[in-house]
Queue: 4 jobs
Job 1
Amino acid sequence: MIVEIQILINWFGGSEKSRTMAKEMTNGDHSSSIKPPPMPSPLRFSKFFQSNMRILVTGGAGFIGSHLVDKLMENEKNEPLLVEVDQIYHLACPASPIFYKYNPVKTIKTNVIGTLNMLGLAKRVGARILLTSTSEVYGDPLIHPQTESYWGNVNPIGVRSCYDEGKRVAETLMFDYHRQYGIEIRIARIFNTYGPRMNIDDGRVVSNFIAQAVRNEPLTVQAPGTQTRSFCYVSDMVDGLIRLMEGENTGPINIGNPGEFTMLELAETVKELINPDVEITMVENTPDDPRQRKPDITKAKELLGWEPKIKLRNGLPLMEDDFRLRLGVPRRKWVHVNCTRLSGGSMSTAASKWLSLLFSLFCRAEANLKP
């Protein structure tokens, strides 16, 4: 999808900066000689006083991609598709274990061939390209939290390898095009992200728990329940991606929320906030499930001035509202009655509690009111 963003290009400073920016490397181990970036399409400069920034987003109809497109299009105008672009956000790839395990060949082809196609376009038109890589490149990490310098612990032939290794190859291609052709690249290693528009039954833990709680189904925690994840709300993620694209650092840079939760803690939080009546059950785990995952976001703070703002307890209800709307399940209003006060204070404490319980059960069975 093409997003036209109105900008005023500084001819005397901006163009020279763009030609030298690719030489700036985030990590010290990428210090090999780098060619200057290819010149942008002549179309960019032939209209530079009038033209808008042209941005290509692959995967723009997906979960994070759709939020990114919304942000990019704020207060801007939508123009017809022009393949001459200035920036490419490359998000396209199945990210749910259910989907990438169902079609692993398509998944790895998207990561490899899709990335090659986008890099070829970036080379032709002189565009800057951002790849959304993943924390899965760290595999089942042996260091905690994970820094960008960690090479990972990945099973190359497991059921998740189409995604894990596919993203690792995509990162390799990005740096090879950067070193060989001078392409301006940005690499974001994104950690678990949640928010509105997630597929309701996509198999990821936050969407699973919220959908189950809204449907009044047991929350299924994969054993042993002590494995950890860190969850970043989608608006924070989009802000981080845009800062990385607009900044001067190639990456890779971790983008995620360092708040760490066990799966049991997440289930208890969803139960508390969304449906206190649901049960929590343990189910068998999937192969190669990482035991822990937490980003070190020091580089994001120092180089991008970015850190997440929305806490898990504040983000989950926003996602719940979206799920209830799509599932057609309204919120229920619970009614609490002080039975001792109704009886004029003469009822015993035990009797009051029993009557309150019975009344509450009656209300929960009968009341199904919209908020």
Job 2
Amino acid sequence: MGSLPVLASPECAPERRAKVSAFDLAPLFSAQRRHLDHFFDRLDMSQAAAFAQALLDAPGAVFFTGVGKSGIVARKIAQTLASLGFARAGFLAPVDALHGDIGAIFPGDVLVLLSKSGASDELLALAPCARAKGAYLISLTSAASGGDCPLSAACDLNVHLPLQGEICPFGLAPVTSTAIQMVFGDTVIAAIMEARRLSRDQYASNHPAGKIGKTLIFKVKDVMKKQNELPLCKEGDMIMDQLTELTSKGCGCLLVVDEEHHLIGTFTDGDLRRTLKASGPAIFNLTVGEMCNRNPRTITAEAMAVEAMEKMESPPSPVQFLPVVDDNNIVCGIITLHGLVSAGL
């Protein structure tokens, strides 16, 4: 492997606090943009389309592999493809594959090999073994096909990812090439999503947890308050008689209903303060029906919870809750901003 330089131990090195300023960052981001533009301007779209079609048409599983940072990108792309639910997709560690894990590959599977140089020893060793198993091989390299890219010759399809250079001070660390690999892989996956006409429900079925899952799966009925949790009153009730109901249910409002629970309007703690300021002692003689908002925003129980949040935040002014009503305007619940946030939305 040659001789590596001997570095001074940290305790012997002179102490100096390193700093990075905006002045230092600006030219690096500009250089990164130029390198990415170089990639976009020179990418062969016919190669990209062939790659996307191969993934779409794969009769079996799709495996991604790579060494080092390219391996990390390969794992991420594999996980994103797997999350769509169109095909079995996964990451195959090249060294582990050569020690038994290649048994996961069956005839008709696709193996995508990511390599900046196109000359990684581990991938060159893996390619003929995967071919012997009946896999279709695709290489993604930044070295053009030919003698400088032996991996492309070992594969059925090569996609050249044009690389002008790395923004690393030595031009060595893969800080631009990996960005190109990631952009390419994710963009192709977005194209596959469109080609397969992936629906929100299909996507949601593979993301039951986390922010994505909650946004796509949770409906209003899943997070709303109902039955005894509802702050209900009649329009003929005196305002001051309903203070306990207004404050005890944690909604900051009253839902004004008739005898059959049809929604008449809403009365909020803000309405209480404004009425008290405007009417003074006369508030003791006012009914909820006289001061309530008779045209409140509402939502249905089957609406998505994220839609409720958007409706709360919509103009002309945000609100903290929405009455939940059915098709006959009968109250069946209330959803609050606090409840949405507590649910992780």
Job 3
Amino acid sequence: MVALSLKIGVGNVVKTMQFEPSTMVYDACRIIRERVPEAQLGQPNDYGLFLSDEDPKKGIWLEAGKALDYYMLRNGDTLEYKKKQRPLKIRMLDGTVKTVMVDDSKIVSDMLMTICARIGITNYDEYSLVRDIGEEKKEETMGTLKRDKTLLRDDKKMEKLKQKLHTDDELNWLDHGRTLREQGVEETEMLLLRRKFFYSDQNVDSRDPVQLNLLYVQARDDILNGSHPVSFDKACEFAGYQCQIQFGDHNESKHKPGFLDLKEFLPKEYIKHKGEKKIFQVRTGLCVGTGQSTTLITDLILSSPGYMNNSHIMFT
């Protein structure tokens, strides 16, 4: 069999090497490490062969278990021997940002195992990554909900809007079956970690504070930004618990009308409906701690009509 002549790039060094076309990629990497001094750095498993392209999205990592001839390489083609690890900035819903080293050759579903393990989330299969969208796109997505003035009295229209929003919302999720590179995610880009599938909310309680906090923030934001439309009464009930979390027990001498900035507690369409009095009525009967309030408001939101369909909830 005629040998395959390839140019192997290692940093700034380029070597021409001969391989049998049937050579497995794993063995090719081993041969490169043995013959090229510049390649003898780090752990072998952290490195791989990369076939670049003029379009960064079309560049691919060669799989260790496949032969070189699988990729239809020609004499003179260039492969880069380089580290597969890349930094990935992850923004949590509570605003914290974490940088995680991930394997650039892995598809997103495999990558999520590493990301969630580093953060302390065990049910990684329920989470996904979202690309941030600009304010104009958010306004376009949410516009129908915000402009509609009949939400307070028309439950059927509310449900139709939720179904429409569910479809639009999916456009920003990363594809689990493709790599970050294939989806054009650059190393400078920050991604949002968000829960996408709800196989069972029984996994979330006070014994899992990391996930409970993330789910609470996600559910709260879904109500405030209109992603999950709710009735006026239910919105006030949620707001009451949210106030309990932020301000503690109700104090009549301190918590007077005008104390609350309602846009932080109610959806935009309910701000002018004199909801502060109703929120205070809910708070008056509460004497629970912050942790309990977080659990209660999360349970309320998860059990509210429509949230299951709108949030990709799945039961096993």
Job 4
Amino acid sequence: MSAINSVIFTATTTRLIAKSAAAAAFKPCHRFLSTSSSSSSSLIKTTSFPISTATIPCYSSGIGLNRSLSRVFSSSSATMSDVSDSSMDAVQRRLMFEDECILVDENDNVVGHDSKYNCHLMEKIESENLLHRAFSVFLFNPKYELLLQQRSATKVTFPLVWTNACCSHPLYRESELIEENYLGVRNAAQRKLLDELGIPAEDVPVDEFTPLGRILYKAPSDGKWGEHELDYLLFIVRDVKMHPNPDEVADVKYVNREELKDLVKKADAGEVKLSPWFRLVVDNFLFKWWDQVEQGTLHEAVDMKTIHKLT
């Protein structure tokens, strides 16, 4: 039991308590709360099960969480059975279980949260219609060339595909749930540009991101994994320093319009792979917006009221 903690869910106290076998003190965990507001003194049978704290992190953000009891136990069971997936890189496995994505409905209203692991399982996407908030950064240098990255071979979804500069998720934490001026999504973009590409925060100030629009799409990666995202499209023009993280990124390059068109032709011929979200943006919006980036009229393209449902 030295590496395993007992997690005891007590419905009458409406909180999860992580009890360490190595210490006598109890530590409150803010990840799950009961949906019941009852203060009845009648006892409900306590359910106890062993689980590793490495796979069930306890956040102390102070945010009230509203996951249902059924999701508490289904999520925990999935974590227990799948954490040992030998095909998953250790870094990606840690992120899959530590990161909590923001669940939204098709109007982008926050409805809960779940692990990155569950949010990318096609079985759960299809059976529970799990939809999570995401962002895609389109970063141009002062010559108006677009930065692309090739995702690392160890990525769980869409390994080795070429895509825009950075694609990830705001997490269920206070700083990335801020709705005003889309600050939560901007904060997440700044965080992940550092994590993935080593771009320091001062090179990409949050107020320099222009949120242009939102798309909603679903795309399988393989038989097990996939995406179902409500994706914020963020544009920025900056001269940045990069130190790509090999756990996240296999390669990077800047391209002009013609080079991107050539890359798309190669993708059509099966010579390279592009991420589905990037291809949707390329096919529907990118080249027109690119013109507006160069002309300094990008603000005219902003439409944050529409959620484009793309296939």
